[in-house]
Amino acid sequence: MRDQGAPHVVDRVLDRAVSATARVIATLGRASPTTASLSLLREEAAERAVASRRATLTGLAELFRDEQPDTPGITEAKNTLSRLAAEALVAMRDDVERAAAGPRAPIARLDRRWRETSTVELIDRVDFDERKRVRLMTHLDEMNVTIGAYAAFLDVLRPFLVRGRATRVLDLAAGHGGFLLEVAAIAQREGLALELVASDIADEYLAIGRRHAEERGLPVTFVVQDALDTTNLAPGAYDLVVCTQSLHHFPPGLVAVLTHEALRIASRAVVLIDGARSKTNAALIPLLGIVRYRDLPFAHDSWVSLRKFFAPEELGLLARCGALASPGPERSVESRFLPPGHLAVVVRSGAQA
Ligand SMILES: C[S@@+](CC[C@H](N)C(=O)[O-])C[C@H]1O[C@@H](n2cnc3c(N)ncnc32)[C@H](O)[C@@H]1O
Questions:
Q1: What gap in Å lies between CA 50 and CA 67, rounded to an integer?
Q2: CA of 134: how far to CAs of 46, 129, 183, 219, in Å?
Q3: Is any atom of ligand 1 closer than 6 Å to the C-beta of 227?
Q4: How far apart are the CA of 248 and the centre of ligand 1, in A?
Q5: Quick check: 126 and 240 in contact, CB under 8 A?
Q6: Whether 265 contacts 238, CB under 8 Å
Q7: % of the chain residues with pLDDT over 70
Q8: Cβ(226) – ligand 1 distance below 6 Å
Q9: Rounded Cα gap, residues 304 and 326, in angstroms
Q10: 175 close to ligand 1 (CB < 6 Angstrom)
Q11: Is the residue at 22 inside a domain?
Q12: Which of 1, 43, 95, 132 is the most buried (most CB within 10 A)?
């Protein structure tokens, strides 16, 4: 979604500088040194946290077979999955802090202080002005295009595109569908065959997306869909199910539930993408919000989000809980830093695992 009218010349210069910096970071392809230094400890701690809950999680898969909203015990099963995943994350984080020795010990303590915030993003507050909310989302979109984030998200999907027919892609909690609108524009340029559906629980965001799709002549469909209950859709209804930049807005346990619900309807893969927790970017992005977009709520929310985002191994852990609790063969779950500032988790569906 773009603001009407071309940006001022100073903003264009700034955009070029930001874009060039993002390209350099993407070429280096590394998370910040503090994130990287805890990566192995996080992987090991995630492994232990999952191992001790594996039997209970796989036991839930039986309850989720032939899942329907009115299946007896389904709400309870979802609550159990959510609780187990949330507990696994806490156990993993505690474990990392206990295991961190030498120079890693203060890094782990600082990370805990950094991520522990009770501040709510303005965009999640019902009393936040609608116009400012839309403006903020527009600026987030613009920044993502400038730093090449949406193109990087699409690159994660590329290995799963179907040959010989259009790939069916569903975006959950898509807001106004900024990502899929950009994917549609890229697909038109590259001649990719995609059937793009942006979904959200709030129709007022979808309405904005619909309008933008029409204005830009882009083939994206917008539908209301609860990301935490996909039983209205047939199993395998889509090839790819994605969720971008929304996961930190959900309580951690519900990320596992969302993964499970996404796996129900994805025949190839579920791709989860969110920002990466970062202190370095917290010094840069809010500044960009003020200088480039003159948008204080954007600056506020980017600061809060950069504290709330997950580390790659944490999001991977939550997705693994959701995958283990899903019927079918065990799925492979890969999590990684996605330069310049995001992280991606790929869960291969049964047939692709
Ligand atoms: C940060 S916003 C949208 C982000 C969007 N994916 C993007 O990249 O710009 C988070 C979205 O999650 C949606 N949401 C919250 N709970 C949901 C649920 N249970 N099912 C579907 N969408 C939900 C909200 O309506 C909101 O649009």
A1: 24
A2: 37, 9, 20, 21
A3: yes
A4: 10
A5: no
A6: yes
A7: 97
A8: yes
A9: 32
A10: yes
A11: yes
A12: 1
| Burial of 92 (C-beta count, 10 Å sphere; 0-12/13-18/19+) | buried
Distances (CA, A) of 213 to 150, 217, 314: 16, 6, 34
Burial 62-74 (b: 16+ CB within 10 A, else e): ebbeebeeeeeeb
CA atoms lying within 13 Å on the CB side of residue 327: 11
Task: Please report whether residue 65 resides in a domain.
Answer: yes
> Residue 100 C-alpha to ligand 1 middle, in angstroms?
35
d(CA 296, CA 42): 34
Residue-wise pLDDT tens digits, 58-107: 999 999 987 887 888 899 999 999 999 999 999 999 999 999 999 999 99
Beta carbon of 202 within 6 Å of any ligand 1 atom: yes
Residue with tokens 């933008």: 212
Strand partners, 275: 342
> Is residue 345 assigned to a domain?
yes
Helix (H, G, I), strand (E, B) or coil at 52: coil
Atom from ligand 1 closest to the CA of residue 226? 20
Give 259 Cα–ligand 1 centroid separation in angstroms.
Answer: 14
SS3 per residue for 269-328:
EEEEEEEECCCHHHHHHHHHHHHCCCCHHHHHHHHHHHHHCECHHHHHHHHHHHHHCCCC
Q: What is the CATH number of the domain that holds 46?
A: 3.40.50.150
Q: Which pLDDT score, from 0 to 100, does residue 157 have?
A: 98
User: How many residues does the structure list for the chain?
Assistant: 353
- Going by CA atoms, what residue is nearest to atom 10 of ligand 1? 246
CA distance 239 to 315: 22
Cis, peptide link before residue 340, omega less than 30° from 0 = yes
**Which atom, in ligand 1's list, is nearest to the CA of 245?**
8
Contacts for 284-288: CB closer than 8 Å, 24+ residues apart? 285/143, 285/341, 288/18, 288/143
**Domain span holding position 61:** 9-352
Segments of the chain scoring below 70 in pLDDT:
1-5, 350-353
Residue 19 counted as domain residue:
yes
Residue type, 185: A
Q: Computed from CA positions of residues 54, 45, 311, 332, in that sequence, does the dihedral angle turn out positive or negative?
A: negative
